[in-house]
Every structure is written in structure tokens, then in C-alpha cells.
Amino acid sequence: MAEKTPITVAYGDGIGPEIMSATLHIITEAGANIEIEPIEVGEKVYLRGISAGIEPSAWESLRRTQVFLKAPITTPQGGGYKSLNVTTRTTFGLYANVRPCVAYYPFIDTKHPNMDVVIIRENEEDTYTGIEYRQTHDMMESLKLISRPGSERIVRYAFEYARSNNRKKVTCFMKDNIMKLTDGLFHKVFDEIAKEYPDIQNESWIVDIGAAKLADTPESFDVVVMPNLYGDILSDVAAQIAGSVGLAGSANIGEQCAMFEAIHGSAPRRAGQNLANPSGLLLGAVLMLVHINQPDVATRVHNAWLKTIEDGIHTYDIYTEGVSKQKVGTKEFADAVVARLGQRPEKLKAVNYTSAPRKAPEKHATQQTAPEKKELVGIDVFLDWSNGSANQLGEQLQHANGDGLELTIITNRGAKVWPNGLPETFTTDHWRCRFLSKGGSTSHKQITALLQRLAASGFDFIKTENLYTFDGQNGFSQVPGE
Ligand code: NAD
């Protein structure tokens, strides 16, 4: 017999231990060839004063096994506790979040009987880097970071996933009509990589109308790839409209490690009563079995689960009078799945996993080889200022002009307020003041001198952003009316 694959298992909080026991019972009965290494994470660890919610020794297990099956955990309310999910994702570079959202009609109620969508969410970048600042009395800032390599690997993962799972189309959601640089890059990378997969259809939607279409006609989508924030929101929407968030599992995939879980939380009010539905975690475990190259076991488990659902054996959360046959608890549900191992569903579509979806795709040559010519052409100086009108600010700031750097525009919350601003424009205490080099390029020395002049005039600059061109193209957004 082949050597057992070690996996790290966290039983979690609330309903976690019950659904994890049920899941492990089913997959072991199905013949999963695994060696379980339990670790403790979550509430108890947080309350011991470890703000990350995980003991240092547990990282060793994760680094050794590189496979993590995790039950939901409770993040205690109040400040100071870091989300274990976010920590695990970023520490291990789990850049792809894969969430299949499938309807099980007519056995589980849904308005979208034919829905079968896989959401692939970028997991590390965007506003989720958590880089935030309070800059003035009135203003908070969150940085949205989108990188070319980050976009390339998630988009490539989506196309590779589509190819190895026999999917026909990959759709990209973004909002590059507003965020022309960040979402614009994501879209551009999508278009570039799509060309390498002529066998797979591709399309792009602005996320607002895309989300509306996804909620209305999900059957017209297949694989959908998107940046972190949109993916976070829309993968919950997709799971819910497929039937229930309680049914979906998800995989977080990195180059070395991967984490598998249910998408729901620890449901503390249902804990310890043998009520919870283990399906989300079980389907997460199915994704894990495919990942560790035990596709036969994954197929046995998934088909037995589909048959159980089809036979109307349902936990309370999916029980519907007239459709369901028997309301069962967590343990009885698990027993029902075990009893059906080897069976296939008759009405629902049976699954057949053949091989592991490819791990992180190889690095590819789409990265730009020749670096562009980068030139410093100015600076945006952000001020905390509440001493008057935009015109007064413009007037005072012009005294700081010099060394080729000249004030060209002032905006407040992105709206142009100087020169020729309108008195109707609402303003706060947070001003962006753009100084551009008259001669085309400038230097750090000239910029530092400008900041010194501003400081000497008593201006509180709370942030600066250098303005660069790349091969002559602006590396900064234009102000409407500039
Ligand atoms: P939740 O998902 O725990 O519960 C939402 C609702 O769904 C509740 O009514 C609950 O009873 C029901 N529900 C959830 N899973 C179920 C299941 N398997 N079977 C039957 N019913 C189920 O969300 P919440 O109440 O917002 O969060 C509770 C805790 O879970 C919080 O501490 C939160 O931080 C944590 N959480 C953890 C994760 C994770 O570890 N991945 C994810 C989300 C929330």
C-alpha cells in the first residue's frame, strides 16, 4: 500500500469538532490514505494570548505536511486578534481561493436549478493587505494593491483549472472603468493570458453588472476569476444562491501549501447539539483528496454524498417539508454517507475526478522582459489642512513652487477644487496637491526641497506619492478636468 499522505487537521471551534469528526469518519471509511496530524487553533489559542490564534509549533506541522484541513474557528470579538485565515493565506502564499458553487435541484431548494459555477478569487492582494491609515481628523485610507505577478498567477490558475476540469469558459470580473490602473492591470493580464488558452472561451464584465448577471442567470457562467474583494463577496453570493452557504467547500492553493475548509463559520449557537451540516467541510475535504492525488477516494465520497442528498436525508438547515425524507443530525448524516459509499446519484450529476488539478502553474514568460524607462515627473502631496477655501490653499501653495516643480491641481476626495473649482464641491480636511515638473523630469533632491519648503510654511503633509512615467506613459491616474 502506498505511503500515507500526512495532513494537518484543526478541529476548530463551535460546530467545528462535530463536523470535522463526521468528515474524517466519511473519508477514512472511503479509503483515504492519510495520516492525521491534529493541531490546535482558534478561540482557545487566542484566549491564551496568542494573537494569531495558532501556536508556533503548529506552523511546523503545516510546513511539514503542506496540506491543511481546517474546521471553522471563532475569532473572539474585540481588538487585537488577527484572522487566522488571513494569516495562513499570507504566510503560506495561498494565492488562489477556489469555491465551486453547484445547485442540487430539486433536492435542495434554489432559484437556479442548473447553476454550476466555480469562483476563483485572488487571495493575497487588493485591499486585503490590510494597509490602512488614519491621515486626518476626517479621513481614513486603505491601500488597494494589485501586482502584475499576483494577477498573472491567479488568472493562469483559473485557465489551468478550467482546462484540467473540463470547463469551457473563464470570465473575469473587475472595475477598470473606475480603477484604471489597478483593475486595469488585472483586466490587461487576463486578456494577455486568455490568448494562451484558445481552447477556452473568455469574457470580461465590469463587476457591478457581472454580479447582477451572476445573481440572475448564474447558469451562463462557468469559471469566474476576480480580485480579492469582489471574490470575497461574490463567492458567498454564489454559494448562497446555489442552495446554501452551508454546503460549499473551498480550497486555498499556494505554490507549496494548500488549505481546505467549509466556507461557513463556527455557528456557536448550534455547537454540541449534533445539529450541524458537515457537507461544506466534507466537500472541502473532497477538494483536498483531489489535491493529494487520491481522486478515486474523492469520487467515492462525493458521489455517496450526492446520493445521500438525493435520498432526502438532510440536516435541519436544508430540510424542506415535502422534499426531504428524513431529518438527521451530524452523526446520522455521516453514517448515511458512509452507507452509500460505492453508490452514485441517479438524478444529480455524478462526479468523476481523474487527476489532481495542476498545482500552481509554472512561472511563465508573459512577464515583461525589458523594464520600461521609469522617470520621476512630479509628486502628489497630501495635506491635512482646514484653514480656509480651496482657492486660499492654492494661493498659499503656489509660494512653494520652485526648482521646476509647479502646483498644477488640487483635489479633495478626488474632485478637482483648484484651479477654477466650484464652490458647490464638498470638501474635507484631506487635500491632494499635484506638483509636476515643468521640464518633464525631476529628482528626489528637488522633491525633498519642495517638501522642506512646505514644512517651513507650516503645511502638514501626511502622505506623498511620487509621480512616474513608464516609457512616457503616466503611472498615475489623471484628474478629470486636468
Ligand atoms: P456562521 O457561518 O457560523 O453562521 C451563520 C448561520 O448559518 C447561522 O445561523 C448558523 O447556525 C448557520 N450555519 C453555519 N454553518 C452551518 C452548518 N454547517 N450547519 C448548519 N447550520 C449552519 O457565521 P457567523 O455566525 O457570522 O460567525 C460565527 C463565527 O464563525 C464567528 O466567530 C466568525 O468569526 C467565525 N467564522 C469563521 C470562519 C472560518 O473559520 N473560516 C468563516 C466565517 C466565520
TrEMBL record:
Catalytic activity, as annotated: D-threo-isocitrate + NADP(+) = 2-oxoglutarate + CO2 + NADPH
Pfam families registered for this protein in UniProt: Iso_dh (PF00180), Isocitrate_DH_C_bact (PF18324)
E.C. number: 1.1.1.42
Any GO MF annotation of the entry: isocitrate dehydrogenase (NAD+) activity
Swiss-Prot/TrEMBL cofactor(s): Mn(2+); Mg(2+)
Protein's UniProt keywords contain Cell inner membrane: no
Keywords: Glyoxylate bypass, Magnesium, Manganese, Metal-binding, NADP, Oxidoreductase, Tricarboxylic acid cycle
Domain Isopropylmalate dehydrogenase-like, chain residue ranges per copy: 6-337
Record carries keyword Oxidoreductase: yes
InterPro entries given in the database record: IsoCit/isopropylmalate_DH_CS, Isocitrate_DH_bac-typ, Isocitrate_DH_TT1725_C, Isocitrate_DH_TT1725_C_sf, IsoPropMal-DH-like_dom
GO biological process, one term: glyoxylate cycle
Subunit field text: Homodimer.
Role this protein plays: Catalyzes the oxidative decarboxylation of isocitrate to 2-oxoglutarate and carbon dioxide with the concomitant reduction of NADP(+).
Family, as annotated: Belongs to the isocitrate and isopropylmalate dehydrogenases family.
Name of the protein this chain belongs to: Isocitrate dehydrogenase [NADP]
Provenance organism: Ktedonosporobacter rubrisoli
